[in-house]
Amino acid sequence: VYILAIESSCDDTSAAVLHNDKVLSNVVANQKIHEEYGGVVPELASRAHQQNIVPVVHQALSRANIDKKELSAIAFTRGPGLMGSLLVGTSFAKSLALGLDIPLIEVNHMQAHILAHFIKEPETPMPSFPFLALTISGGHTQIVKVNSHFNMEVIGETIDDAVGEAFDKSAKILGLPYPGGPLVDKYARQGDAKAYPFPKPKVDGLNFSFSGFKTSVLYFIQKETEKDPDFIEKNLNDICASIQQGIINILIDKLKKAVKQTGIKQIAIGGGVSANSGIRDTLKECEKRFGWQTYIPKFEYTTDNAAMIGIVGYYKFLKEDFTDQRITAKARFSI
Ligand code: ATP
Ligand code: FE
């Protein structure tokens, strides 16, 4: 089975070709344009997708070294995401499937972040069912109980900001450029994580909240820079380490609760924030201390990418779970 997959939910245009559960190509065009604005501008994203989609699909096919006539089906991201962005990928996928007279397969982006763990790679072991998936990205923060490929339930999610936003907005308060998450990680490595303890927000159950966290960072920085205008510059490493630690504490606290509640100790991490070195180190510690088993896919499959759309497409193809041409994009789309 050869699947061409298309992802255009946010600001990256991506196309991939899979042969069964193996990735032959995975092309991602990043949109640099948003950096100047300090965040994704939906109008610009949609326009950039229109420019990128044809070359990106061509490149995916040529890197995979296959002709479009060999494709078995086209998989695409139906949602959730930015409507204008989703429409570009959806319309393109529909017309290509129609033109080639092959099945069309809709994919839920959040389900794809989770099933990315089933892309076959020699170095990465796959979780077995049931497992808990923690998806942490610029737009999402969720804990999902995964019973099988297509039986998943969200057992916790953020009630306001996503964890990536907590990193990026805290970084912005420190005057760091967007997206600041990777920079916070970099400075944190040299800093003392206990220097400035930030409070954990009180949220019931397995849900998360990060907007209060960001506010406490803001007040703290305002107070300290009033006393010493050079406070940030002098203590950047310690501040970043403390912010990162605060965020990790919130995540691990809820993970522990989820493990206790479900009795499941297999935890699969996905989303761009899983690149964070502090989070990775902490998970390794949890493996030793609590007997957890944690899984993180190859980095290129954790951020937004079409390969993860393709693996969902492959499993749906096996079930002959195809999509009608009347399908439309869906900005809000739960798992
Ligand atoms: P979504 O996947 O929800 O549509 P997105 O495309 O913004 O959102 P990703 O590309 O998965 O999300 O992740 C980007 C986010 O990850 C940004 O907020 C970025 O700051 C954060 N991030 C990336 N690397 C790191 C890191 N090493 N430490 C902390 N945060 C990081
Ligand atoms: Fe995503």
Q: How far is it from the N-terminal to the C-terminal residue, by CA?
A: 25 Å
* Structural class category: alpha/beta
Strand order of the largest sheet: 3-2-1-4-5
Bound molecules: adenosine-5'-triphosphate, fe (iii) ion
- The residue-averaged pLDDT reads 96
| Strand percentage | 15-25%
Global geometry: globular
Proportion of residues in helical segments: 40-55%
Largest sheet: 5 strands, mixed
Low-confidence stretches: none
Number of helices: 9
Radius of gyration, in angstroms, nearest whole number? 20 Å
Q: How many E strands? A: 10
Question: What is the H/E order?
Answer: EEEHEHEHEEEHHHHEHEH
Characterise the protein shown here.
- Residues 22-310 form the Gcp-like domain.
- GO terms for molecular function: tRNA N(6)-L-threonylcarbamoyladenine synthase activity.
- InterPro entries: ATPase_NBD, Gcp-like_dom, KAE1/TsaD, Peptidase_M22_CS, TsaD.
- Belongs to the KAE1 / TsaD family.
- Its EC number is 2.3.1.234.
- This protein is of the alpha/beta class and 335 residues long.
- Helices cover 42% and strands 19% of the residues.
- It is built from nine helices and ten strands.
- It has helices at 42-64, 83-100, 109-115, 163-173, 181-188, 211-227, 231-262, 277-290, 307-318; strands at residues 2-7, 12-19, 22-30, 73-79, 104-108, 131-136, 141-148, 151-157, 266-270, 293-295.
- The strands form two sheets. A five-stranded mixed sheet has the order 3-2-1-4-5, with helices on both faces.
- α1 runs parallel beside α2, α4 (163-173) runs antiparallel to α7 and α7 (231-262) packs parallel to α8 (277-290).
- The radius of gyration is 20 Å and the shape is globular.
- It starts with a strand and ends in a 17-residue tail after the last helix.
- It binds adenosine-5'-triphosphate and fe (iii) ion.
- Residues 109, 113, 137, 304 line the site of fe (iii) ion.
- Fe (iii) ion binds next to α3.
